[in-house]
């Protein structure tokens, strides 16, 4: 059985989406992704590199390393919540609606972790 590209509902072989709403939401998503994918890619790359660099710095100058790593996790989480762009194989296996939801949950978990790390950083390293 073929499934709607957006919500995963079963459809006939002649259709791509189960309803106009799903088609519109899919087009909106790809517009949004096309508009922000560059920004997302750059910030993503900086944050993903920031985590190991922060960890390395941590062994040299602990407060700086910890601050870097905490901010990298926080910004990465925030970016993923705002721009929940799933990877291609997630979209094909889960369909767009669920893939976006799962990606946003991953972002939220990172964001909460980042907030917790920043609070720990403020208390233990920056001594606020
Ligand atoms: Zn649908």
- Alpha plus pi helix count: 4
Helices and strands, in order, run as EEHHHH
**Class from secondary-structure proportions:** mainly alpha
* Counted beta strands: 2
How far is the first residue's CA from the last residue's CA?
A: 59 Å
Name the overall outline: elongated
Question: Ions, cofactors, ligands: which are bound?
Answer: zinc ion
Give a summary of the structure in a few sentences.
The protein is mainly alpha-helical and 128 residues long.
Task: Describe the protein's architecture and organization.
By secondary structure, this protein is mostly helical. It has one domain. About 75% of the residues lie in helices and about 5% in strands. It is built from 4 helices and 2 strands; from the N terminus they run E-E-H-H-H-H. The protein has a two-stranded antiparallel ribbon. The termini are far apart. It binds zinc ion. The site of zinc ion has 8 residues, from loops.
Topology:
Blueprint: E1 2-3, E2 10-11, H1 20-60, H2 62-82, H3 88-94, H4 96-125
This protein binds zinc ion.
Zinc ion (ZN) is lined by residues 4, 6-7, 9, 17-19, 22.
Features of this protein?
binds zinc ion; 128 residues; 2 strands; mainly alpha; 4 helices
